[in-house]
Write a structure and sequence with these properties.
This protein has 3 helices and 5 strands. It has about 120 residues and is an alpha+beta fold. The strands form 2 sheets. The chain has a 3-stranded antiparallel β-sheet. Strands 4-5 form a two-stranded antiparallel sheet. The longest helix is centred in the first third of the chain and has 23 residues.
């Protein structure tokens, strides 16, 4: 499993902190609207997708934002798994800053146990 590390805020630049706070505010607003409508994010992703199959990607063909290079999909596990499912989030290579590089060797990157270090962030 990939380890998530919270960065030391003292190491982040002001633009990065500002962008992060704006993203948090937007996420909170999305959850507020979902809660108000008695909805949830997984249900919204699955809405209108037709028959549901474990391990398939939802939405079909993933979601890709060409302007940011971001991509995501949701998939559910088999019924014997304790977790219903989870989202996979990607940032394609072309969208990464030029100086961005994995902080661990290629073997760790291939296993999904890598961090992305962006100088100045």
């Amino acid at each position: 499993m990939t380890e998530l590390r919270i960065p030391d805020l003292k190491t982040l630049g002001e633009p990065c902190i500002r962008a992060s706070l704006e993203a948090v505010a937007e996420i909170r607003e999305c959850y507020r609207v979902l809660k108000k409508g008695d909805l949830n994010i997984v249900g919204e992703v699955l809405r209108g997708q037709g028959p549901f199959y474990e391990l398939d990607h939802y939405p079909k063909d993933d979601v890709f934002d060409a302007s940011t290079g971001s991509q995501y999909y949701y998939h559910a596990h088999r019924s014997d798994h304790p977790e219903h499912g989870h989202f996979h989030l990607f940032l394609r290579d072309a969208a990464l800053p030029e100086l961005a590089a994995p902080s661990r060797p290629a073997a760790a990157v291939a296993s999904g146990r890598a961090e992305l270090r962006i100088p100045g962030h």
